[in-house]
Amino acid sequence: MDKYDRDPWAGAESIPGWLFLVLLAVLFIGILSVPTEAKTVTDEEKIFNRLIEYQQDPVGFVTQVLSLKDKYVWRKMVDVLTSIRDHQFTAVPAAHSVSKTYTLGRAVVWYKSCFQPSTVVTTAPSDNLVKEQLWREIHAAYAGAKVPLGGKMTSLKWDVKPSPEVLASLAPEQREMWEKNFVIGFSTSPDSATEHATKMQGWHNERLLVVIDEACELLPQIWRTIMQALIIDKNCKVVAIGNMTNPESDFAKACFSSDPKKNEGNDPYMSDDGWHVVRISAKDTPNYKRGKIVIPGLVGRDHVERIIKKYGKNSDTARVRLYGLPPSYKEGTYYGAHLATAKKDGRISNYPHETTAKVFTFSDTGDHWTGTLFVQFIRGRIRIIDDYWDNEGEGVPAWGRALQSKPYVYGGHWGGPELAYGMSGRFQTGKATVDIAAGLGFDLQSCPKHSFDDGIEAGKAVFSLLEINKNRAATFIKAIAGYGKKKNMALSTDENTVYSAGEAKTWHRHLAAAYRHLAMVYRYGEIEGEMLGYPGATPTRKSYRGDRGVDDMLEVS
To answer: H-helix or E-strand containing 76?
Structure first.
């Protein structure tokens, strides 16, 4: 019999669940006060004490307590587990099909079982990623344990707090920690981001682990909440994992090293931001190295060679899917290639605000999201010197205060074409956006009428003229880098990605819409009485689809 197939604590399966929970609650708060001669070491205490010993041995835990056979443990799995043990910040940029989510699920169960009391928070950009991937692995690991791990497991929560009677017997500060002795999972989609960002700020405990799956797609405000509000001391840890799809994401920045050998290499390293980075390449897997199936489910040599043959060894597709490296730009985006060229040309830099030139704003105003670009037109260039981003629904009044707080002399303000029809802002305040802006002293004009496709093409046409301040317009850079079409999950495979028609309804689209409005005004409008784009040019389409689904609302004369 394989040594990892045996039950390390035979007979423990008969422990009542309620008794195990009581043990968890009282172990650290009362048992030491009992005289030595009065103590009786029970099976339950032996189990719990052994789990504590596995705090420094996550690999032993997943093979001896959980059901993973030791022959299926491989080098990168060990690197990930030990990095979470040894480092406060762990980043795992990974190729496709390298068991990253499988490993992460077992890491969650190890941490929750061995560190008590603790709170574990898991998140991902979509419900599907949370429910059908990471939490499926958490459930599988829990169900396959060789000893009872206790608690109540539901679809997205593993609650290991003691009974109400035990909680009531504890001191208030201890009661609070044990009340939050759970693992919880949720998605951070754009429409619920503010709610979850607020809720997360209260999840503190003696120990905390935050787990981010598909971290490249995480909303900036969620990343910021995690790093600023949750990670408050050395007992708070973060592990972020995912495919490196977006080179401008917070995840990519966390993984970045100014040492090119580390940044493009495959050995674990410390990033410039202090993250311990474990990159997983498809070529690391035992299946690839041996040219046969050694561990079921891992990517193999045939797949790697097929991708290389189709896309090229050094293609962006190979970098993301095979090597766990960032692409030059995110796949499926509208402006990704243009942004990559701008970076290569040095047009994303510390461009200053020229105090002798006026500043113009271009906005996308909405009921919940508002994005604004601050622009100067300098020597034939379009210089984006600053941005404003409201994702909390503060509306036009907050927008007006933000503009007033800037040290700029304004020359004009533009929003979307729907402003001309008074259709923006009524859902929020009962007043039209232009009327609210006027009351604050801003003459907010509508950009030229256009279709979505016309706006995208205008944005592409003027991108070569952009100069972008990399610090003050950093949110715009992230938005434009991630702005793209929606991935069709049903039709996409590891070898072929299929995108649906139209933009993905993500946070990126609002600042991207502000840029689209800028491009339309530049090409087809007048700025202080001057046509800066093409004199006499007009959009060719006869319909406009705005963010609220307005169709065929406008006509082009």
So the answer is: helix 75-86
User: Do 473 and 388 meet the contact criterion of CB atoms below 8 Å apart?
Assistant: no
The pTM is what? 0.74
CA–CA separation, 463 and 339 (whole Å): 8
Q: Is the peptide bond before 16 cis (omega within 30 degrees of 0)?
A: no
Helix axes 100-114, 75-86, angle to 10 degrees: 40
Domain pair 12-280 / 344-524, same fold:
no
Reported as half-sphere exposure (CB side, CA atoms, 13 A), residue 498 has a value of: 7
What DSSP element (H or E) covers 242? strand 236-242
344-524 has CATH 3.30.420.280 classification:
yes
**pLDDT by position in tens, the chain (length 557):** 333 333 333 333 333 443 344 444 434 333 333 344 444 555 556 666 778 889 999 999 999 999 999 999 999 999 999 999 999 999 999 999 999 999 999 999 999 999 988 999 998 887 777 778 899 999 999 999 998 888 899 999 999 887 788 778 888 878 778 878 889 988 776 555 566 666 666 677 789 999 999 998 888 888 988 998 888 889 999 999 999 988 989 999 999 999 999 999 999 999 999 999 999 999 999 999 999 999 999 999 999 999 999 999 999 999 999 999 999 998 889 999 999 999 999 999 999 999 999 999 999 997 778 999 999 999 999 999 999 999 888 889 999 999 999 999 999 999 999 887 655 544 445 578 888 899 999 999 999 999 999 999 999 999 999 999 999 999 999 999 999 988 776 676 656 777 888 888 888 999 999 999 999 999 999 898 887 876 565 655 444 444 433 333 222 22
Domain 12-280, CATH: 3.40.50.300
3-state secondary structure 273-287: CCCEECCECHHHCHH
Count Cβ atoms within 10 A of the Cβ of residue 78 and give its class: 0-12 exposed, 13-18 middle, 19 or more buried: middle
**Distance between alpha carbon 503 and the CA centroid of its chain, in Å?**
19
**Residue ranges of domains in the chain:** 12-280, 283-327, 344-524
- Is 201 within 8 Å of 194 (Cβ atoms)? no
